[in-house]
Amino acid sequence: MITTPPKILIVDDDVNIGNLVSRFLKKKDYEIQYAQNGKVATEIFINFKPDLVILDINLPDILGYNLCTEMQNRRDVFVLMLTSRTDLEDKKKGFITGADDYITKPFDLEELEFRVQAILKRKGKIQVSSSMNNQIIIDDLIINPETREVQLNGNIINLTTLEFDLLYFLASHPRKVWRREDLVTQVWDNNPIGDNRVVDVHIGQIRKKIEQDCNNPRLILTVRGVGYKFEHNSLC
Fold this sequence. Notes:
2 domains
């Protein structure tokens, strides 16, 4: 059986870094496209349809945060942010805008490949579970793993790739309490994401989109001192 190599779009205004990463990943049998700015990246993104985007934050014509959101709105894609920004708030903003992972410059090429492999491995898991078409229906909330769509009161809810994965995982295990480190293992596939508080960031974003009252959630509950659980058992 012939398999298609994963497609990766690299977006970085530093030509030296762009060429270095491109050559390295091509040797690892990935199909690579490279762009120096947001405008070119968007054009390539539409036609190339990458599985993963390695994205710098500081681009000459757009912030990587904004470009990440635009790409996520166009289609379901994984994003790894590669940047010189090291502050926790920058990382938090990256995850909030849809990034699946975050690596800072200077970086080790072998570590970069490890993170790429971990993200794409998650993509494989998603494809397997999607084929089962196990919809989860809770009152007016519908979570469809085949189309990777979430509907609330008949309206499509726009979730990032990682937000969907986290929501579907929790909803697939109703009433089970998960520690933050367990969620990192299960949803991030042990990919090192730094501080486990990143889980809190994603939970907060999901609650804003599906809960009527974020301060008094009825679906994703906090178990004080432990982690989170999904409080419902209506699986269809």
